Amino acid sequence: MRIESVEALPAGSDCYVRITTDSGLSGVGEGTFFAWPSATAEIVRAFAPALIGGDPFDVEAHWLALYRAFCMRGMAVTSALSAVDQALWDIRGKYFEVPVWQLLGGRVRRAVRAMRVIDAGAPEDLAEASLTAVRDGFSALKILVFRPGDHGLGQARRIENMVAGFAAVREAVGWDVDVAVELHRNLSPGDAVLFCDEIARLRPLFVEDPIPPDSVMRFAEVAARTRVPLAAGERNTTIWEFAEYSAASGLAYVRPDIGVAGGITHVRKICAIAEAHHQGVCPHAVPSGPVAVAACVQLAMATPNWEVQEHVPQDGPRWTDLVDEVVPLREGYLWPPDRPGLGIDLRDAGLARHPPRAADLTDVPRRADGSVAIR
Predict the structure, then answer these.
(1) Same domain, 165 and 276
(2) Which entry of 62, 151, 266, 284 is annotated as an active-site residue?
């Protein structure tokens, strides 16, 4: 069996890939470089000549050849590589007529606990949305407490607003629900420590991305100065970056994105590095599309330290147009499809209804003086 064609299909904010073999068997994957999906598509098309004619089972060899050819790093490159990697794993599962998790060592859990992501808002809105999610069956939430206009506020008021948002949610849902806090890289190290100190009493599951991911050393300083668990990794790629974060940053949770961090091949290794450091895995899965989410669920089924997977509702044309089956959510858990491979296939007609779109750079967060904010 040989690879016969490689298709790059950018749609919306993601780039989907279909690899077809000379036997007619095909696999799908998704690159989640959501700022510029067309850049991912161009790189996938450049990869195609190196893949066509090759053995689709040589997943590791293809990964290394594509990544090491010119040693060009960056998320556009690893996004393309991640999508190709997922598609090759999908082919393997379909060939052996088993879900991908069976090829990764078998399952370690019955299903994957989902963490409902709650968008930023006023404290009362956060509390109401969180209560609704709990009533819908979620036992884990992630709340965004930094609002779009907060960069224009003074430090004391900005931190007070964020603390008030989390306090309102904790009061609403009680102590039996795990609540994580997302900061989206919007604070300086000093402000991050101050915020974490004030919410420690509310027992966050973790505080995510308190500062930009530019420096392992600065992140380690924040971790050393606060009592709350920290999480990061959605803007990192490959085992080499994650090895340093796991070893030196003080992280409690790593957050690889299967659509940019290196696909199933590398995220599996990232999870193993984290396991060796007693760190949990909470992957970046929002705003990923349906194929990347399916790939995450397959890997989660075979990964012991996969703690929880972030989630937003998957209904509507954003997803159902693109694929023939969406990973089912029941009682707060994501359940892997019974079908072989990733358990999901693309709808070409639906993809055509969602042209690729680039990120909007006209609304970059700014401070009151007009300067670009930290994020």
Answers:
(1) yes
(2) 284
Q: Within a domain: residue 254? A: yes
pLDDT digits (tens, 9 = 90+) for 61-115: 999 999 998 888 899 999 999 999 999 999 999 999 999 999 999 999 999 999 9
| CA distance between the termini of the chain | 47
H or E segment and range at residue 91: helix 75-96
The reply to whether 354 belongs to the active site is: no
Active site residue 311: no
| Measured distance CA(88)–CA(307) in Å, rounded | 26
Whole-structure pTM value: 0.96
The shares of helix, strand and coil residues in the chain, as percent rounded to the nearest 5, are 40, 15, 40
214 and 315 inside one domain: yes
Q: 141 and 75: one domain? A: no
Query: Which domain does 164 fall in, by range?
Result: 102-341
Residue 117 contacts residue 142 (beta carbons within 8 Å)? yes
Q: How many domains does the chain have?
A: 2
Domain holding 132: CATH number?
3.20.20.120
